[in-house]
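call fold(seq) -> tokens
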Amino acid sequence: MGSTIRHPLGGWVAILATAIALALTPGSADAEPNQTSPSSILNSARVLPKYSEGRLVGVQVHGIKPDSLFERSGIQNGDTIVRFNGVAIDSPKRSAEFFRALGSGKATQMDVENGAGETRTVESPAAESP
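ret:
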């Protein structure tokens, strides 16, 4: 099984920079009230890319804060999110799309792999309407 490492090309930096850029994208002030900013999501847990044999295979989650979106979704410390809504998280672009989907306020289906290599499907809760 792969491990979480910093990729020589700085893939984790690209993931974080993209998530922050999404939070600062023009029009974000017009965002739906049910949306969650990518920076808020990143503050709710430590999310790092997971590489196996030099390839990005998902994002691994640690340090999950109580009542965070990750905890409410049933994700546990050490879990690796490998797919969202059927899309593999296999590039910085896909990881940015994942954060955007997670922050959309809509339910997001995630395939999650635990440390034993077992995969399960969980869903982030949709944001409640005001």
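Residues 3-9, 22-34 have pLDDT under 50 and may be disordered.
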